[in-house]
């Protein structure tokens, strides 16, 4: 059980998402970096599909009345616990009954994930406990956590071993690798030059629906198209030429040209971009991107 003494900026119950509902307009959603949540679940002995907390930019103060086994992964946040002991990242952490865990500002990056032994037992909606903020369902009452909320935990299904996980790679300054999108041919030479030579900044209006960028405008021949299927990581170009990288709760269809798609292995980096961060793009061939994805899956299977 978790009692929320003070809410963070945006604390969300998340699992690996709800794939299979796009025909109803519902994206898969789920944790912005599923591998980071899976790593936290492994550290506490959970089923890998268990729900945890996705914490954004500034974290909450949480009390654990019965104690528990927790793990934190992702970006490091300023953190303290009422016992005065250290709060490690990517390790199993045992909390005593009544102990309090406080997470402050992110010290780098944007998001971290907290798993509790037994998982968070919020009611599933469409086979997932993840919140879908745009529609206000899933998670805890369809909203971010507030002070006074109480989250129940489920039963622990695996044995807990005090251990460490490999810290996720951090390459925030490297360009995002992309493959050509279906409308890349509609972008003129000046637009392509602006997109690949420019440095964009993440705007404050960004959220889980998409990362809005500000920089050199990408010119193109057609402003809108018939709706097409889109996925997280698709880079759309609206009429003003300022790219939008679709996020985890973004639409499942869109009518703007898609100039590129962020490759699978770079999608977790989107989760750590914060307002004001610089974004650059570099192109790669589709087969090379597939090879990187296969290598990443093999690494995660062995972890």
Largest sheet: 8 strands, mixed
Which stretches are poorly predicted, pLDDT < 50 over at least 5 residues? Answer: none
Overall number of structural domains = 2
Query: What portion of residues is helical?
Result: 10-25%
What would the principal axes of the Cα set say about the shape? elongated
* Cross-sheet strand order for the largest sheet: 19-12-13-16-15-18-11-20
Content of β-strand: 25-35%
The secondary-structure element order is EEHEEEEEEEEEHEEEEEEEHEEH
> How many helical stretches?
4
Query: What integer is the average pLDDT?
Result: 90
- Strands, count: 20
The Rg value, from CA coordinates, equals 20 Å
Helix and strand composition category: alpha+beta
Give the termini distance in whole angstroms.
Answer: 28 Å
């Amino acid at each position: 059980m978790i009692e929320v003494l003070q809410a963070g900026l945006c604390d969300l119950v998340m699992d690996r998402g709800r794939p299979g509902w796009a025909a109803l307009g519902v994206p898969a959603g789920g944790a912005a970096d599923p591998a980071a949540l899976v790593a936290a679940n492994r550290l506490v002995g959970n089923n890998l599909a268990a729900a945890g907390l996705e914490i954004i930019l500034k974290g909450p103060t949480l009390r654990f009345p019965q104690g528990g086994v927790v793990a934190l992964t992702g970006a490091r946040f300023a953190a303290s616990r009422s016992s005065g002991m250290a709060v490690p990242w990517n390790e199993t952490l045992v909390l005593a009954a009544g102990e309090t865990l406080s997470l402050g500002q992110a010290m780098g990056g944007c998001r971290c994930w907290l798993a509790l032994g037994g998982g968070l037992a919020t009611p599933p909606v469409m086979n997932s406990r993840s919140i879908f903020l745009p529609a206000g369902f899933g998670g805890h009452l369809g909203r971010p956590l507030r002070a006074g909320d109480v989250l129940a935990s489920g039963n622990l299904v695996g044995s807990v071993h005090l251990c460490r996980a490999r810290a996720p790679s951090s390459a925030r300054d490297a360009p995002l690798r992309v493959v050509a999108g279906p409308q890349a041919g509609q972008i003129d030479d000046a637009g392509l030059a602006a997109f690949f030579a420019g440095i964009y900044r993440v705007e404050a209006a960004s959220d889980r629906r998409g990362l809005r960028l500000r920089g050199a405008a990408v010119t193109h021949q057609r402003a809108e198209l018939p709706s097409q299927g889109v996925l997280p990581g698709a880079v759309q170009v609206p009429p003003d030429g300022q790219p939008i990288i679709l996020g985890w709760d973004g639409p499942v269809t869109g009518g703007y040209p898609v100039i590129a798609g962020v490759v699978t292995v770079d999608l977790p980096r989107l989760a750590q971009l914060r307002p004001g961060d610089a974004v650059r793009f570099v192109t790669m061939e589709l087969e090379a991107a597939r090879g990187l994805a296969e290598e990443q899956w093999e690494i995660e299977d062995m972890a």
